[in-house]
Amino acid sequence: MGEALDAKASKVRFTRCVHPAGEPGQLAPEAPESVRGLFAEGARCEQAGALRAAGAMYRAAVEELCADRGANGRNLIAKIADLVNRGVPAEVVRDLDEARLLGNWSLHEGLNFSHDEVADVASLIREAVFLLYVQPEQRATLRAARQARRDGHRATPR
Q1: 81-125 confidence digits (pLDDT tens)
Q2: Does 136 sit behind a cis peptide bond, omega within 30 degrees of 0 on the bond before it?
Q3: All residues at 6 or more sequence positions from 47 whose CB lies less than 8 Å from its CB, including other chains
Q4: What is the mean pLDDT of the chain?
Q5: What's the pTM?
Q6: Any idea what DSSP says for residue 84?
Q7: CA–CA separation, 128 vs 90, rounded Å?
Q8: 99: which residues sit within 8 A by CB, 6+ positions away?
Q9: pLDDT per residue over 16-38, tens digit each?
Q10: Which of 45, 87, 139, 158 has its CA 20 to 30 A from that of 132?
């Protein structure tokens, strides 16, 4: 019986997580530095398992995004709602409000969220940044390339 126990014990393996375990999530470089910095700090918190802190930093990133877009309001819920008046699609506004809620409940009510819930909010912020900053930049680049092609064609003698 002792041999069977020893055989099982020899199969036990341990894994040690060494910080940093990998590169934490980053936002696209087209996003304002202030938003990217807060998001990156939230991602480091998320990676370290400090999920309430991650929620708070993701909320702060949304607040900074609102400031960058010129949103007005006496509190963050009003600023997020004002994004609709700044051309932000209603679906994106709802998603950003999810980040606000996660941060508020983490900070003010001490609610613990799962890794999946925090990661979901991070992905909502990434998607919002893509729609509000990356995609317009990509379109502007393509538009400029098309114009340059037309201008080059006109300058070429026939």
Answers
A1: 999 999 999 999 999 999 999 999 999 998 899 999 999 999 999
A2: no
A3: 20, 21, 22, 24
A4: 87
A5: 0.78
A6: G
A7: 11
A8: 58, 59, 61, 62, 121, 124, 125
A9: 555 445 456 899 999 999 999 99
A10: 45
The token duo for 131 is 């729609």
The two three-digit tokens of residue 125, written as one number: 């912020």
DSSP per-residue letters across 137-156: HHHHHHHHHHHHHHHHHHHS
**pLDDT on residue 8:** 58
In this structure, of 2-11, 22-31, 127-136, the range with the lowest mean pLDDT score is: 2-11
Selection from 21, 18, 56 nearest residue 39 by Cα: 56
∠1-9-6 over CA atoms, to 5°?
30
Task: Determine the residue type at 150.
Answer: R
